[in-house]
Amino acid sequence: MAHAIWNSLAKTSENKQLFLFLISVPFTLVLLPQMIAETVMTVSPLQNYLLLLLSAAIQAGYAHFLSRSLIYGDLSQVYPMMRGLATCMIPLFGILFLNESLTSWGWLGLGLIAAGFFLTSAVSLKIHGWNVQGKVLFNTIAVGLCTMFYVMVDKVNLQYFSPATLLAVSNIGFMLGLLPSIRFGQISLLRELREHGKWFLAGSILSPGSYLLFLFAMNLSPLSYVAPLREIGTVFSTLIGVFILKEGKGALRLLSTGMIFAGILFVGIMGM
Questions:
Q1: pLDDT tens digits, one per residue of 123-153
Q2: What is the CA radius of gyration of the chain?
Q3: What is the count of structural domains for the chain?
Q4: How remote is the C-alpha of 191 from its chain's centroid?
Q5: Neighbouring C-beta atoms of residue 175, cutoff 10 Å
Q6: pTM of the full structure
Q7: Please, is 130 exposed, middle or buried when counting C-beta atoms within 10 Å of its C-beta (0-12, 13-18, 19+)?
Q8: Class of residue 53 by CB neighbours under 10 A (exposed 0-12, middle 13-18, buried 19+)
Q9: CA-to-CA distance for 207 and 250, rounded, in angstroms?
Q10: Residue 98 DSSP code
Q11: Residue 123: helix, strand or coil by DSSP?
Q12: 87 is in which domain, residue-wise?
């Protein structure tokens, strides 16, 4: 829910890159001392640090493509699409490389989730046409791939670093990915904070907080199980898009969301 809400706040913001950048700053400053202590004062093999850098680099790409997805597409359109690719691929990674497993009910749930995402994509084609859809598809697929890769890398990183350190590294990479798109010389930060401060504050709690919770969840349970459960955010994002942002084709989008929700229940209740 936290993830869906901060994405909706970013969608409604005037300067999406600036919003995404600013909401990452407070938590990063809070976590910076622990990150320094854990990475500088503790000796680890070189490969562990390389994995941290890889996580930051993927987060930078994620931030860049996420901001463009929110510019070009509706929230109820892009959110399920960019989450769907990662949802379907991450359990396969866990099964192939981490010796994890899902029950038959879990696989049925995963199939329902995939079908719901496919229906959402079909709805988007009807609403926006091929020209706009090309931009939307490119950026949302890129977001989905980045999500898949940073989750897989961070699952490995959790063996060597704490969730707090991983979150700080992720936030730094996220902000670096946004920097080239922000024209700070043309922006009055004081005016932005004065006019939209409460939304920046909400986003600065929900954005890093949502991923920190997911890192804790990955530490407690197999990746193939928790990754599909994370997509409950798709249900919230669609409801926000249809009922609050008044985006089109509400009935079909609600149908696809219902399929995703049913799939999540199958994975969550009978998936292991």
A1: 555 554 544 466 777 888 898 889 889 988 9
A2: 18
A3: 1
A4: 28
A5: 21
A6: 0.80
A7: exposed
A8: exposed
A9: 26
A10: S
A11: helix
A12: 2-270
